[in-house]
Amino acid sequence: MPKVELDEIDRKILHYLQNDGRMSNAELADKVALSPSPCLRRVKALEEKGVIDRYVAIVNPKKVGLPVNVVIHVSLHSQELSQLQTFQQRIGECEEVMECYLMTGGSDYMLRVVVPDLEHYQHFLVDKLTQIPGISNIQSSFALQQLIDKTELPIGCG
Does residue 59 sit within a domain? Predict the structure, then answer.
């Protein structure tokens, strides 16, 4: 996928929207020194180009009873396409999985899983993860404290 070229105003628009996606167009236009119509046209263009992928609400996991973050490294017996596809399809069905990356290095996949407690993690591990065929090794690490929690990409704004 080719990189989209961004000018300084585009970068400013993205900076503000990444920090407050509910900001009104009038407020955004004021912050980036444009009138509302050109600002809205730029936002729409960023959406159409796929730079702005979607708008979401970021939910505090502790407030909804999901305080436990687990990073899991998974290795497969083989990296044959069919095993990779099976793993990816099955792991995509697990609502606890917040992120999944195909990796280089010592493991094939890295997952970030959220659960309310250790009992629920054990259920996820035994009843879901280990039931996926082709897994040779699972290593779990529990996050003790979140030190950085960013959603804004470092695209710069001038």
Answer: no
Cβ atoms of 109 and 103 within 8 Å: the answer is yes
Contact 98, 113 (CB under 8 A): yes
pLDDT digit string, tens, across residues 42-90: 999 999 999 999 999 999 999 999 999 999 999 999 999 999 999 999 9
Same domain? For 73 and 104 the reply is yes
Domain enclosing residue 21, as ranges: 8-48
1, 8, 75, 121 from 32: Cα distances, Å = 28, 9, 47, 45
pTM score of the predicted model: 0.88
From residue 154, alpha-carbon distances to 19, 90, 98 in Å are 12, 32, 21
